[in-house]
């Protein structure tokens, strides 16, 4: 009697947590940022076993690491609770709204993209820490859903055109004033030069 084939036993322990759209806001950069945030709470030896695959956070460990898998799963589940409220960092908001760094800085400065506070981190390979503004996810979601970026760009284009018009007008006025001052100065010099002839004649210096 032929021996029964041995069943294929799983070589890895795998658990997935779907990432809600409210958390990623459709951004792969944001999804990666969320993974890094959750990884930071895991033990060093299992951090890289957590990743994002097809819109879900996936933890994968070998079957021999059941204890580590159970602990890591518990940590990930806790970290994911309320993950949609995690502040959005600069590179994430730029990807979510499809905006440039220049636009982010301009709209942050004039209040259209209000800051939700600042965050200070030390990047690998850098001696100094860096501080940057973070943003409220619900604010960013509203900006995205209402397509405010399109309106802001139109407003900026109008403002830029108006500023160019004013600058051209100012330059034209300055040029006219400079020309007028030059004319007055030239006339004064001519008049000053003629005043001395009468005195020369009186003294007989012209004879």
Describe the structure.
The chain has 207 residues and is an alpha+beta fold. The chain has a domain of 76 residues. It has seven helices and five strands, in the order βααββαααββαα. The strands form two sheets. It has a three-stranded antiparallel β-sheet with strand order 1-3-2. A two-stranded antiparallel sheet has the order 4-5. α2 packs antiparallel against α4. The radius of gyration is 35 Å and the shape is elongated. The model has no long low-confidence stretch (mean pLDDT 86).
Task: Please report the number of helical segments.
Answer: 7
What is the CA-atom radius of gyration, in angstroms? 35 Å
Oligomer class: single chain
* Uncertain regions spanning at least 5 consecutive residues: none
Q: What is the strand content? A: 5-15%
Class computed from helices, strands and strand pairing: alpha+beta
Mass-distribution shape = elongated
Query: How would you characterize the largest beta sheet?
Result: 3 strands, antiparallel
Q: H/E order of the elements? A: EHHEEHHHEEHH
Instruction: Give the overall average pLDDT.
Output: 86
Strands in their spatial order, largest beta sheet: 1-3-2
End-to-end gap? 148 Å
- How many beta strands in the DSSP annotation? 5
Helix content: 40-55%
């Amino acid at each position: 009697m032929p021996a029964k084939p041995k069943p294929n036993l799983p070589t890895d322990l795998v658990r997935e947590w779907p990432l809600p759209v409210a958390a990623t806001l459709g951004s792969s950069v944001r999804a990666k940022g969320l993974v890094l945030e959750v990884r930071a709470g895991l033990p060093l030896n299992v951090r890289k076993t957590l990743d994002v695959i097809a819109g879900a956070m996936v933890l994968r460990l070998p079957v021999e690491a059941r204890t580590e898998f159970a602990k890591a799963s518990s940590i990930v589940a806790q970290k994911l609770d309320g993950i949609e409220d995690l502040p959005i960092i600069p590179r994430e908001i730029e990807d979510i709204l499809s905006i440039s760094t220049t636009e982010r800085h301009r709209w942050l400065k004039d209040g259209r993209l209000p800051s939700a506070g600042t965050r200070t981190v030390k990047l690998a390979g850098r001696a100094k820490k860096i501080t940057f503004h973070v943003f409220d996810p619900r604010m960013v979601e509203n900006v995205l859903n209402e397509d405010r970026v399109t309106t802001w760009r139109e407003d900026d284009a109008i403002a830029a055109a108006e500023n160019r018009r004013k600058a051209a007008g100012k330059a034209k006025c300055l040029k006219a004033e400079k020309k007028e001052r030059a004319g007055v100065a030239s006339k004064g010099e001519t008049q000053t030069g003629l005043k001395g002839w009468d005195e020369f004649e009186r003294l007989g210096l012209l004879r």
